[in-house]
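User: I'll paste a sequence; please echo it back and then give the predicted structure.

Assistant: Echoing your sequence first, then the prediction.
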Amino acid sequence: MDRGVFTRMDALEDHHWWFRGRRTIIRALIEPLVKSKDNPSILEAGCGTGGNLRMLRDFGRVDAFEFDEIARHAAIAKSEMDIQYGSLPNEVPFDGFRYNLIGLFDVLEHVEQDVASLAALAERLDEGGLILVTVPAFQFMWSKHDERHHHFRRYSRKSLKQVAQNAGLRTVEIHYFNSFLFPAAIASRGMKKLIGSDIPDDQIPASWVNTILRIIFEAERAMIRRVPLPFGLSLAAVLERA
């Protein structure tokens, strides 16, 4: 990603509505996956500047790795964890360790070899272990935001399930999320294209707007497994070895 993206991420991921809302959804997805485990082992692949690590440590023992050195050092400072260098698919650290849960949160779209990356992580799963993946949804939503973040693609339910299958994984569950704000996002991105705006999507809005957007996003936690939403800005999948 562009250096400015990591700088904004480090500064905003504790406050920005999108980061906070996504953590709420991820937490809601993880809770039933690990509730039967005693101190489960968790790996975050591509932890960025470390904004999810505190939440993940609420569930069990956590390891993490990150490719970008500046982001990795920011995550170390934030978490006081020994975060290793690593990249997908060929340089996954913690050799010999196996995990009950591997989190890949908005990382797969940054990796050219998405099938090989999931297959490499599958090799690190303990018996009965799961991979939780979140990715941006729908190729028609492609924008300068994706280019700035060096995305290779966005996913649909069908395409993500196919990538998982090609990696030797079975899709246990799959959900669109960030759905309530989907119409507003379409309108916003359409307007930006119309007027040629280059304002980054990840800039934090006014405090009251930020709070409203966060509340709307977080409200989906009560629905994520109960109501299958047909669309959303993001997609989450729980995967296991086939």
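The mean pLDDT is 91. The first strand starts at residue 41 and ends at 45.
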